Amino acid sequence: MYAVIETGGKQYRVTEGEVVRVEKLDDEVGSKVSIDAAFVATDDAVHVGTPVVKGAKVNATVVDIDRGAKVIAFKKKRRKGYKRRIGHRQMYTALKIDEIVMPKKRAAKKKAEAEEGEE
User: Coil, strand, or helix at residue 21?
Assistant: First the structure.
């Protein structure tokens, strides 16, 4: 089972037990975070949200808040003596995905439809 979540203007494909680095969140290390899922794929069905799947959540724990690797921006104009070097380190939050939660009624409905189809 996997899900697609959106945070910080970016989308991430996550599975349970995975550690994902996302744009910095305002939560502290050790706190629990719940994010709406835009897409959930289970073993037997696919759920696509508009924009999110109703009741589907991804529960995660904040593992770390740190800065990423340095990115260098270098500008130069040849023969003019113009050079500028700028470094930047983006803040990120590391999330450990604890579980992907689907609403019971939707999962039960899909299971019932699958059982009727087998008969």
Answer: strand
Q: Please report, as a single letter, which amino acid is at residue 73.
A: A
- Looking at residue 31, the DSSP 8-state letter turns out to be -
Buried b (16+ CB within 10 A) or exposed e, 19-40: ebebeebeeeeeeebebbbbbb
Alpha carbon distance 8, 56 (integer Å): 19
Tokens of 112: 């019932």
pLDDT tens for residues 95-111?
Answer: 999 999 987 765 556 66
What's the number of CA atoms in the CB half-sphere (13 Å) around residue 95? Answer: 26
The tokens 């494909």 sit on which residue?
Answer: 13
**Alpha helices for the chain (secondary structure H):** 104-118
Considering the entire predicted model, what is its pTM?
0.77
